[in-house]
Design brief:
about 70 residues, mainly alpha, Helix Hairpins, elongated
Length: about 70
């Protein structure tokens, strides 16, 4: 088992950082720290989604005996 946060936990934390920055009441040094935290959370969410997309593509290809095609993202 991993201690890494789930996608949902990371997304929720990212939303919290965005809300904090949107209020506009943080001192500059704190706003920069919150922005950096948000950027790290964004990257984590993006990585999880990209990995999930690859897994879905492979599973569909294996299950249907098809050639691998990217999963459409809307």
């Amino acid at each position: 088992m991993t201690d890494e946060p789930t996608f949902e936990e990371s997304l929720r934390a990212l939303e919290d950082r965005v809300d904090a920055l949107s209020r506009g009441d943080l001192p500059l040094d704190r706003a920069l720290a919150v922005f950096e935290e948000g950027l790290a959370l964004y990257r984590r969410c993006h990585t999880i989604l990209a990995d999930s997309e690859q897994r879905v593509t492979k599973l569909v290809a294996a299950a249907e005996g098809l050639t691998e095609e990217p999963f459409p993202v809307e």
